[in-house]
Write a structure and sequence with these properties.
about 260 residues; disordered N terminus; mainly alpha; Arc Repressor Mutant, subunit A; two-stranded antiparallel sheet; Rna Polymerase Sigma Factor, Chain: A; single chain
Amino acid sequence: MTLLAELPVTPTVPLDGGDRADELLVRRHLAGDANAREELVRRLTPLVNRLARRYRGASNNDDMRQVAFLGLAKAIDRFDPDLGVPLRGYAVPTIIGELRRHLRDHGWAVRPPRALQELTLDVTSCAERLQQATGRPPTPGQIAEALGQDEELVVEALVAARAHHATSLDAPLREDGDGPVTLGETLPCSEPGYERVHDADLVAGLPDILSREEWTILRMRFVDERTQEQVAETLGVSQMTISRRQRAALDRLRRHLAA
């Protein structure tokens, strides 16, 4: 009879058994004992919470806990007790990998380059550990020294960390006499009149490179929005003549503007 067949089906493994208890629970889980899997998740919940808290500054902590539990479930299902590696030692990199993958794919309001994403996660976790150890926020130089990174890169990562969260345009910024002023109200608006003034100034500044007839054709075609046939009828020439003169006038304007 195999070892798996000899293992009990009821969850009787003591909670103080450490890695050995974890291994026995995994073997029972692989043998089809659903209670063993639930017991493993319960035993390793403090580990999940600890790892999820490392990234709480980068995303919602409840979301991070859910992702960490997903990583734990994958670790339990993929773990092979015959490899001689403790389950916890196998689960930690699996959970961290799941957390990093989630933040890479879903945790950025504005996504920076991949290398900067990875560094930002390291910087965020390192800053939290240093603050817990010293009781005060670390400087970029202290973080850089702890990670063995260039201080300028650490500063860039700290700035990029702000891209995890987008601020609503309806978020209040301050109060005035009429009530709260929102972020959206402080942003510049698009004024189509500016573009028209710019275009008019550009045309007015052009030298006299087109004949009066050519200007008339362009105005009738693109301001009055007439067809070539209608312009030809108004000017008493053929449509082919209008087409040729329009093309020549536009080519001359393009060459001048590109010079």
